[in-house]
Amino acid sequence: MHGCAAACCDRHDSTLEQVHRCIEECSGKVSSAQTYIQNELASFQDRLQRCVLQCQDRVKDQILPNTTEKQVKGFREEYEQCVVRCADTHVDLMPNLLKKMQETIASYSKN
Questions:
Q1: Which of 9 and 46 is assigned the larger pLDDT?
Q2: Residues 80/56, Cβ–Cβ less than 8 Å
Q3: Nearest of 26, 25, 21 to residue 3 by alpha carbon
Q4: Which three-class secondary structure string do you get for 30-72?
Q5: DSSP 8-state secondary structure symbol assigned to residue 111
Q6: How many angstroms separate the Cα of 38 from the Cα of each of 41, 61, 63?
Q7: What is the reported pLDDT for 1?
Q8: Can you say how many angstroms the Cα of residue 81 is from the centroid of all Cα atoms in its chain?
Q9: Of 104, 111, 110, whose CA–CA distance to 34 is shortest?
Q10: CA 48, CA 54: separation in Å to the nearest integer?
Q11: How far apart are CA 45 and CA 56, in angstroms?
Q12: What's this model's pTM, rounded to 2 decimal places?
């Protein structure tokens, strides 16, 4: 990308607008790759957050006005275990996510 942008600046017969457009074209693949990675990571984070929210909902649905402190403690432990399962599940997804992102980014340089 930097070599491409430098070549754009070396064009002495180009207008400033043409040089700017040339540089934008050079950075297009990098920008696309960055956007792709940001979207994938945001999606991953959203999935993890939804899992944690499901844990929270499961526990909230069990708490009643007459729930004792002992029961609340048990629900808290249940919630924490559920969140740990969410984290473990999502950590296990990371190798495939990384492979998918690497393959997608590699395809950007081929186009």
A1: 46
A2: no
A3: 26
A4: HHHHHHHHHHHHHHHHHHHHHHHHHHHHHHHHHCCCCCCHHHH
A5: -
A6: 5, 34, 37
A7: 62
A8: 24
A9: 104
A10: 10
A11: 17
A12: 0.75
The residue-averaged pLDDT of 78-84 equals 98
Longest dimension (CA), the chain: 81
Tell me the Ramachandran region of residue 23: left when phi exceeds 0, alpha when psi lies from -120 to 50, beta otherwise.
alpha
Quote the mean pLDDT of the chain. Answer: 91
Q: Which amino acid is at 16?
A: L
Retrieve residue 36's tokens: 């792709």
Q: For the segment 56-71, what is each residue's pLDDT rounded down to a tens digit?
A: 999 999 999 999 999 9
**Residue given tokens 């960055």 in the structure block:** 34
Which DSSP string corresponds to 66-105?
A: T--HHHHHHHHHHHHHHHHHHHHHHHHHHHHHHHHHHHHH
Token pair of 1, please?
């990308």
Phi and psi angles of residue 82, each rounded to the nearest 5 degrees, phi first: -65, -45
In the chain, the N- to C-terminal Cα span, in Å, equals 14
